[in-house]
UniProtKB/TrEMBL annotation:
Residue span(s) of domain Peptidase M3A/M3B catalytic: 212-664
Residues annotated as domain Oligopeptidase A N-terminal: 53-142
Matches recorded under Gene3D superfamilies: Collagenase (Catalytic Domain), Endopeptidase. Chain P, domain 1, Neurolysin, domain 3
Taxon lineage: Eukaryota, Metamonada, Anaeramoebidae, Anaeramoeba
Pfam families with a match to the protein in the record: Peptidase_M3, TOP_N
Membership in a protein family: Belongs to the peptidase M3 family.
Name of the protein in question: Saccharolysin
Keywords recorded for this protein, A-Z: Hydrolase, Metal-binding, Metalloprotease, Protease, Zinc
Xref: InterPro entries: MetalloPept_cat_dom_sf, Neurolysin/TOP_dom2, Neurolysin/TOP_N, OpdA_N, Pept_M3A_M3B, Pept_M3A_M3B_dom
The UniProt record lists the keyword Oxidoreductase: no
Cofactor dependence: Zn(2+)
Keyword Amino-acid biosynthesis: no
């Protein structure tokens, strides 16, 4: 059982440990280079390299988490600084010609040719990654590429800091917040001095989105959306443009027409043409004309406007009128429904579902260290064998300086530890996986528990899907552990689990009114499910907008983010962006990990729905189906390509039928 992880590092300790790891890793790489050609073996090259990967990644995972969650700004800043140092070091080592040639010498040895399974895959992928780092380029171009990559690392870290450290807020009189639930209003901070008599609204998710969905005062919604959209400011929009320009330069140096072709080559989609065909084809199938007209008519009726007056559906309007439509036409009131989802009870219910289908047991541990008093930690065991499997941490409430969205962080990946003297076939010592869910749900008050909106319940299922993808992984080589799969496959596991938030049996399991203690009534569940695809085109075209914005930046040479964003938003969503905003100011996905990859959310959804159909074809809580998915999807990590993993799970080629049904395009 893991119990040695610390979270109370000082900035000085973080710097010292990072420098020591960098020095140790460089020393090892130098030793591999120093070996005589023909003398490199698994024992002196491959196994130590895999172990070096593990140690380096373990520390990077800790500093990545603390940079986004520590309550100490000095710690957050130091973590970002050393994260940049470690990224630059990794870039430097990945572009060492002498190290590449040394590893190539090992790869051509009889020792390497006899490898099988994950170790063979490791050699193949490492050679591929060396080549994609520019090792086939002349030295002058290779050095230029190295400097460009380092510059991008610095710019990416600055981007994240600007968003996460943003402290923007607005102040409103109570009447300017008309329509907001009383419990929500009671949770706001009262102003002092020049803001006396007003209420503070932060740019955290639990403040912003309830206003956009519930506040009847249009001017308030407008001010909040604009302020929210300005997080990161022009500085971040400029950083995004510079980062995309540098990516283009890197791709050109490597011989690609655009960065997207370079990035997607190693994903399931394989090419930017395939991605654009997928996104544009989906756009052709999703017409939002009738849906937008219905919202405009609802706005006309609500505001008592004349028949001849032009009705504009503004960016700060559509969520409000979508929610109003759900209440009036479908009798689905998200604010009323949230009373059935007190966080503690709903979380326990979701855990119970994961327990049933995956054959696991969770036990809360109150003793181990954590980085904040609100953080909860659970040990995970296999129910049948009682073996320890891994750990999860939950950090679910907002606070200053914390990552302001929902995400899964990895602290440890499941793999074998490869000590000196390790031999193939050794069972060895296993490093157990640890995952963290970071979210920003509404905090409980003295009188009311934290209550989740239904879409937040879906988010919880989703993020826990990522956590258990890591925790249930059981592979030998850290490079392929957990979520280390193609980027356009990684959402499949979590999106599959979202579906449990839409089934009557599971909704009964996870709901209990915080006052009456009764579960969701059957009639209300039926209404929720019936209304699931209301405005499906509006909602999905918004995802298409983000995906196409990302692809445009990474396939063309126009990096004017404001111009591209405004044009695409109007063309795809038929709604204009709010004035004085630019999504490039805070679109962190395309800075860290999802560049030329945001399409992955829709792409993965095709596979997620196909996998979930296995549950629908049996019992929704089928342990047999759950075991199949655990063993063939969750536990294998990236030991095979995503398409082969899907075929192993489904027993056939994947298809789009379940996906099209899930978004209302097929009966």
């Amino acid at each position: 059982m893991e119990n040695g992880i610390r979270f109370d590092f000082t900035p000085e300790e973080i710097k010292e440990k990072s420098n020591a790891l960098i020095e140790e890793s460089k020393k090892f790489n130098d030793s591999v280079v120093g070996l005589e050609d023909g003398k490199r073996t698994a024992k002196n090259t491959l196994i130590p390299m895999i172990e070096d990967d593990r140690k380096f990644l373990n520390w990077q995972c800790i500093i990545s988490l603390l940079s986004e969650t520590s309550t100490n700004k000095e710690v957050r800043d130091m973590c970002r600084e050393v994260d940049a140092d470690m990224d630059k070091f990794a870039i430097e080592q990945s572009m060492r010609e002498d190290l590449f040639l040394a590893f190539k010498d090992y790869a051509n040895s009889e020792d390497a040719k006899s490898l099988t399974g994950q170790y063979k895959r490791y050699v193949e992928r490492t050679l591929r990654d060396f080549k994609r780092s520019g090792l086939d380029l002349p030295e002058e171009k290779r050095n230029k590429l190295k400097e460009l990559k380092k510059t991008n690392t610095e710019k990416g870290i600055e981007f994240s800091k600007n968003v996460n450290e943003d402290k923007s807020k607005l102040w409103f009189k109570k009447e300017e917040l008309e329509g907001m639930p009383k419990n929500w209003v009671d949770n706001l901070t009262l102003g002092k001095e020049e803001n006396e008599g007003k209420l503070q609204v932060t740019m955290n998710y639990p403040d912003v989105f309830p206003i956009l969905k519930n506040c009847t005062v249009e001017e308030t919604r407008k001010q909040v959306l604009i302020k929210f959209g300005q997080r990161g400011g022009q500085e971040n929009a400029t950083l995004t443009e510079e980062i995309c320009q540098i990516r283009k330069e890197c791709a050109t140096l490597l011989g690609y027409d655009c960065y997207a072709d370079f990035a997607i080559e190693v994903k399931m989609a394989k090419s930017s043409e395939n991605v654009l065909e997928f996104l544009n084809g989906l756009a052709d199938q999703l017409s939002d004309v009738e849906e937008l007209n219905r919202l405009r008519e609802l706005k006309r009726k609500t505001l008592k406007l004349g028949e001849n007056e032009e009705i504009v559906m503004n960016d700060w309007d559509w969520r409000y009128y979508h929610q109003l439509l759900m209440k009036t036409e479908y009798q689905v009131d998200p604010e009323a429904i949230r009373n059935y989802f007190p966080l503690e009870y709903t979380l326990e219910g979701i855990f119970n579902i994961y327990k049933k289908i995956f054959g696991i047991t969770l036990k809360e541990d109150l003793e181990l260290p954590r980085w904040h008093k609100d953080v909860k930690k659970f040990d995970v065991f296999d129910t049948k064998t009682e073996d320890f499997v891994g750990q999860i941490y939950l950090d679910l409430y907002p606070r200053e300086g914390k990552y302001n969205h929902a995400a899964a962080f990895t602290l440890r990946k499941s793999c074998l530890i490869h000590p000196e003297g390790f031999s193939f076939g050794d069972k060895g010592v296993r490093q157990y996986p640890i995952s963290v869910c970071v979210a920003n749900f509404t905090k409980p008050t003295k009188t009311t528990p934290s209550l989740l909106l239904h879409n937040e319940v879906t988010t919880l299922f989703h993020e826990l899907g990522h956590l258990f993808h890591n925790v249930l992984s059981k592979v030998d080589v850290v490079k392929f552990a957990g979520t280390s799969v193609e980027r356009d496959f990684v959402e499949t596991h979590s999106q599959c689990m979202e579906n449990f938030a839409w089934h009557k049996k599971s909704l009964k399991e996870i709901s209990k009114h915080h006052e009456t203690e009764k579960p969701l009534p059957d009639e209300l569940i039926e209404k929720m499910i019936a209304a699931k695809n209301v405005n499906t085109a509006i909602l999905n075209r918004r995802q298409l907008f983000y995906g196409l914005f990302d692809m445009t930046l990474h396939t063309q040479e126009n990096f004017n983010t404001k111009e591209i964003s405004d044009k695409l938003r109007k063309e795809i969503c038929h709604i204009e962006n709010a004035p004085d905003t630019n999504i490039a100011s805070n679109f962190a996905h395309i800075i860290h990990g999802y560049q030329a990859g945001y399409y992955s959310y829709l792409w993965s959804l095709v596979f997620a729905q196909d996998v979930f159909s296995l549950f629908e074809n049996t019992d929704i809580f089928s342990a047999e189906t759950g075991l199949l998915i655990r063993e063939k999807l969750f536990s294998v990590g990236g030991t095979e390509d995503g398409m082969q993993i899907l075929k192993n799970v489904l027993g056939r080629e994947p298809n789009k039928d379940a996906f099209l049904r899930s978004i209302g395009l097929k009966k």
